[in-house]
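[step 3/7] fold_predict: job queued, chain A
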Amino acid sequence: MKATVPVDAAVRRKQGGFLDGVVRQKSGLICLVAVLVFLSTCIVLQWLRTDLDWRQDPLSAYLKGPYGGWLRMAYYALSMALMLLGAGLYRVLQPRARSAVPAFLLALAGIALTFTAMSETDLPLLDHGQENLLHRIAALTTFLSVTLAMMVQSWRFHYDDIWRAHVALALPLAVASFIALWIYAYWHGLPEGLRQKTVITMILLWLGIAAWWLRGEQVARVSEAHPG
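[step 4/7] structure written:
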């Protein structure tokens, strides 16, 4: 028994160190790759799914049928990336610029995005109406959480000496995405698929840019810590 306690503690420290290292050093790169994979998958499916009209059909329509599994995998990758991005930004910012709010909202968006994809897989315990309800709630939670997180996080950049320069791009894009979300919800002057995919593209643009900035900061810190 005496020998197991130090061993267990060492294992926990090793696991915590690995996860902490991923958040501190690799979260920007992982998120950037996930965003590019998601975007690429969505674009390719617009041509492969000839049975759907990209202007009329929302992205959720592509989760079922041919190639739906590939899109679900892209959803799951993006959900993981949202959580890593929130944690990574929290760690890289100066203490006075940190806020748990955007990190929490991005984590919530990531969880909700997973349920959004799962709700289109013929869940055994739910009937069709319940699946649709779960999908609507999960999708709404994802959209609201991620756009709110984008705005709060963009504003928090202002309190960091290095990241303050990014506010001029990040905040207007985040606000525009939030406004576009409500236009999508309440204005029906354009086809649903086109409106929804415009909002998604704006969100992915912000996420990709933030991930690129995070990756650059993480690479710079690793270089400083290990010169030469």
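[step 5/7] annotate
Helices lie at 4-48, 68-92, 100-118, 128-156, 167-186, 192-225.
The two ends are 45 Å apart (CA to CA).
exit 0
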